[in-house]
Structure prediction request, 683 residues.
Amino acid sequence: MFRYYVLLGVRNLRRNPALTALMVLTLAIGVAASVSTLTILHVMSGNPIPGKSERLIVPLLDNGPLRSYVAGAAPDDDQSAYRDAINLMQGGFGARRTALFGIGGSLEPERPDLPVEGIDGLAVFSPYFAMFETPFLYGNAWTEVEDKNAANVVVLSRVRSEKLFGKINPVGKRMRMFNHDFQVIGVLDTWNPLPRYTHLINGNGGTVNGEDGIFIPFNAAIGAQLYPSGSTTCNSEQAPGYQGFIDSECTWIQIWFELKSASDRNALKDYLTAYTAEQGKLGRFPRKAPVLTYDVMEWMNHLQVVSNDTRLAVWLSFGFLVLCLVNTVGLLLAKFSVRAPEVGVRRALGATQGDIFRQFLVEAGVIGIVGGVTGLLLSVASLALIAEASAELSAVAHMDWAMLLLTVVLALAASLLAGLLPTWRACQVTPAIQLKSQ
Amino acid sequence: MFRMQNLSKTYRTHMIETHALRGFDIHVREGEFVTVTGPSGSGKTTFLNIAGLLETFDGGNYTLDGVDVKGMNDDARSRLRNEKIGFIFQGFNLIPDLNLFDNVDVPLRYRGLSGADRARRIEDALTQVGLGSRMKHYPAELSGGQQQRVAIARALAGSPKLLLADEPTGNLDTQMARSVMELLEEINAKGTTILMVTHDAELAVRAQRNVHIVDGQVSDLVRKAPTLFDVNSAELAAAVANATA
Prediction:
């Protein structure tokens, strides 16, 4: 019978086409508004590394000065000092670890007639690539030995590689930047995690747009005396010069641990607490603030990757969908009420109230499917318009299969919900009265 | 075919009580053609609706083909209606968006028959009413008489034991009315019990029995000279036995 009901539903779309079109459009607009905002929320709040997000941990150690500190308060700084980064890298805790900071500068062309080009990227330790599962197109990451030796090697993003060398394997080629010659050791395949969770506090794009074009060894960046391109927080005096900067309590480095198991997190916390206590004996960490750890999703939440505005937009759009639903209920009531004679005939010919309920609900569902497909087209169009608004929005305003499916499911669910009252009313038709009144 | 004993039905609004049927007794045998007459508001349609299980009753008993319908829920009444009863209405009541084939298909769908069985029944029924070649036509493309024939085909397709007709010729001209009446007589001759409400005295007397209803009660039963259809098989067997003794 379900197929029969679907056939009737499709056939009845043609009945009173203006009313049907109005219903489809009302549903489609409501669904498109919800799906558009939800798509952005979905991309920004999605888990960028589902397999191990609970094992990738950011520690926060509060090395700020004692002044204006309220005892027991959480760290108010999201990055670490150079000294702690180096100590923790050498400490060897966890399966893997990396410290990183954003770098930016100029790429000096081999030929003097070519323009100098700006370049952005990251200084990282070699485990970075395995920790964040970066795909390699050519070559591979540098080794721990090259980390120690501060080797001047570089891994390029695919976009940067093709921009510099075209579509060839550039491994072994040299490029000059930061006043040093670097040898290309690898090229990443397309890799744009959304949000850019490994380096959310950055100076080259933001949480979703922009791309790290180069990756060089952390120690090579220090050797080249590169200052971070992202944010730096300094709350105390520092000696002059680059050495003074890296010896200071300024925070500008992101630290990541990869744990063998998520249950090792408490052990990491104990380890870090012991570390800050030990450093306290050297006069550091005067606040004695609690150590905090965040896994990937907690870290994105902490840094409010999804802004309150985005969440508000989603709520508002769902409010709009409810309004559209109320309108659809009214339109369906109008559409179904003129079908009372048909209900009377069907009931007289043996349809139960349940049969009528199923038939009309399926018909509402058919309208929902058509509304969903129309809503899908409207969603794609509205996302294209949203993408026009800013580079950041253009990075997230695109639909994936999950959202595509959600659009149709949402429209179907909305139409079924809207169809409940009109369908129930249709079931209440008294056949005897309808049959006589015709 | 069915028996009603001391049946009563009252319609209540917050101001008025209307006794549509009271102390209503009737017994219609299998294979009979019974016409129902009476002034407007006498309870004819209420009787037909209760007989067709479209309405419930307040008191008394009603047995349809051996099944006591008192206290049956709506689903059970719908299934029984679908299985045993065919309806023909004054206003034809075809579904305008469905072609003739699909209109006749409606009661068969609810019976859960296979596609092939349904198609065979629909073609047979439409052929029987002379519209076998117009199955893909829509009701609006037909005359009133033809539409009523489609309604008869729809009622017949499910092979009901009881056919209820509420003024089936009321919207037709004399010639068409006669043609529809002949068709009903032909159907009755094949064994289907027919109960027909009519205002037409000429048609009323063509049936084997005419039930006259006044003020919700059976006031008169007019019987024609007995025919084979007036006696049930036991009576017939007894008569044959007497004749041959």
